[in-house]
Amino acid sequence: MKDYTFNPGDFVVYPAHGVGQVTARTKTTVAGQDMDLLAIQFTKDKMTMHIPSTDATNKGLRQIATPAIMGTVTNILSVKTKTKRIPWSKRQTEYVAKISSGDPISLAEVVRELYRAPEENSTYSERQIYEKALGRLAPEYAVIHDISEAEAVSKIEEILQSCVSAK
Question: Is it the case that residue 117 has pLDDT exceeding 80?
Fold first, then answer.
């Protein structure tokens, strides 16, 4: 895994919480050991997390995706795939693992596979997983494109809808 230097003001992604912003780097002593801590503010969850900077990447913290990766995400969203013919419980487990990874490409795959046009029906659990994946993908998409999260959701769903309409 690549070692990053996280600085105040940087947007980061922590898989369990999504997009946050490094607000400070502080030095503290815990159990007699000096530690360099990153303070990360997650606006959506209204929380601040402190994580040792030396352990940040091991804990899954990563820099925000690059515009090139978001380009790949857009491509993934714009190509419709056939629903896998495996039991829902296995697909659900796969989707939850992809969401937990926090990887924008994996999130885009889940969003694309579970998207349903407004006139189509989806099960409650499909909708819940879709919304969770979209909720993790949209903030990162918003930061990269310098738009609000609501605009990001609209743009992502426009891409998905145009793919469905092109059938």
Answer: no
